[in-house]
User: Fold these one by one.
Assistant:
Number 1:
Amino acid sequence: MPTIDPRVDAYIDNKAADFAKPILRHLRKLVHEGCPDVVETWKWSFPHFDYKGVMCSMASFKEHCAFGFWKQSLMESDAIPAEKTAMGTFGRITSLDDLPDDETMLGLIKQAVKLNDDGVKIERTPPTTDKTLVVPEVLTAALEQNPAASEYFNAFPYSKRKDYVVWITEAKSDATREKRLATTIEQLAEGKSRNWKYEKC
């Protein structure tokens, strides 16, 4: 019997966009078909599939889905793109056509199963880069004008502060930058991270 987590049902039925529902249901079905002993679980506010450790996960965003194998760097397949357009193994998924065919997907799932069966670990190299975050002047100035936003920003961990900095600095026009800056200050004043919508259970 498959191990089903009702939180995954709720995520697909209530939180996923309409376009994403059939994609997530199909991915879920394939994972269970490829690994009958898989256990559905919930980590970092989106569905995961465990088999002797984390095996894969899926997520739905406003305009795309994502599906990723935990040990994709150790997997071999021409179906895994070298460059990604979003998080996950296959980048932005907006329809079932963005995924490999079912036979290929099942082959990948079975590769992931074997890696976990064999107890293969990913060797992770500790980061050596300087984690000093360069905050753009426009954001610094805006934070000075809003003590609440500034307090939350400074209290956030490096990764969450970086999310805002990158979002603002990557704006391609002044108008976009100003709009993002206003949203940043508004969200920070409420204690929200850049991706707060996707962090809720």
Number 2:
Amino acid sequence: MPVAAMRAGGVFPASRFDHVGIVAVAGAAAPVVYGPADTRPALHAMAEQAGGSGALDAGHLAALLGPRASRVLGPAWYGYATRDSLLAPRGTTVRPLTAADLPSLARLHEQTPPAQREESGTTGLPAFGYFENGALISVACLGTWQQMPTIGVLTHARARRRGLAHAVVAAAAREGLNGRPVVQYRARRANTASLAVAARTGFTHYADGLVIHLSA
């Protein structure tokens, strides 16, 4: 779709899409709504509803697709940081993880509920972590999505509210900025703790997004 559409918004039906997506860019005139051409009426209804409410209500928007709506992902918050915006804490010792540290990451995963572990996006190296008494208690992994550096973060439940997520995210973001001018952070819109980490680390909100997979 045209680059200008991200700011202008609009409905974009096309045969190449295999899902329905909604992207609401901060400050844009309207959301972008796209999907298969045969969902055109639902796409227009979604654009009207999302544009009027100012927020992406996953349940209501998916209902407009009727029985074709399958798995719903989001709404998710997308933000970006640059070298100028990145805010790193002082006094917290964070180091890069090596292959020898992967068992420590696995132990942290074992101590985390499955849904939180999956959402965290902490899949492996490169990663930056904070260790306490030999145990990894906070980690940020640097991944790649559509050639964009993106951050995944996880902190042990008993070690939260200590600024550790801020420290490891800043370290991972700094590494990502060595290769690209911006780094992405994304989280479920409902995860206010994660969004607070993003804001504290200097990520600026760009858009909210919602993806609705379609049944066959």
Number 3:
Amino acid sequence: MQELYFAYGSNMSSRRLRERLPSARSLGQASLADHRLATNKPGRDGSGKANLVATDGQRAWGVLYAVTVSDWRVLDRFELDYLRVHCEVVDHQHQRRIAHFYVWNRLGPELAPFDWYLAHLVEGAREHGLPRHYIAQLEAWPRRLSRAE
């Protein structure tokens, strides 16, 4: 059985997600209303990790993937400290779809992500044709200099 996963962080990159879930299949871009991208989730390395924060009037972009039910156990281990929830996204064909995504459910200050991490977001956004203004926002995001993955 397959379910939908809305990836908005480094897992937007098919290359990155398939290293974790070889069976994941991209269904294209999608968006989530009344949310914005933030990097307020502190990683174990002290850098900022992607998170979605409820914000009226904003739209967060990401990639919709089909994953198997058994894949959740694997992905949950990578998404430590995040809570998996479901939401309604709008896909590239303007269809409303129910999908799961991961959220860090705390308030915190914005933290700069490492450049290698942000590169996964930009790679995924370009790969899946996210809006140019969103890609430009990602490219302009404050970042920290490299540290090994």
Number 4:
Amino acid sequence: MKKNITLTINGETCHLEVETNRTLLEVIREDLFLTGTKRMCDKGGCGACTVIMDGIAVNSCLVLAVDANGKKIETIEGLPNGKKLHPIQEEFIEKGAIQCGFCTPGMVMTSKAFIEKNHSPDEMDVRTAIEGNYCRCTGYTRIVDAILSSAKRMRD
């Protein structure tokens, strides 16, 4: 069974006909070709597929596309302003918080939603905010440092 939906992805309105059992992750990657949102566990346990939906970080593998109808969705591709990276992306690079890069889009999107709600986080706030994002390469220290630096930079 198919249903017509409308999503606003990174500020652009998209009208799609989707099967009712498809996830938002599948539609983002396969229909809209926005492959920055990563597919890993398909169970909501890793955070690699995190996008921001109406201001809230969500695991797009757990959201049916039809349930996102009418929602505003932000993906990693929507963060840069032209050729200028978002401050969170710049801080991840500056602090060396990127290794293999597979978890990075989800970490960055989780961080953006978090910082927009908590402008002055401490280390424990950050660690709590990203506990749903799994990284195989780092010990998280550089990621936490990048998020704290991002929050300060965005606040100042």
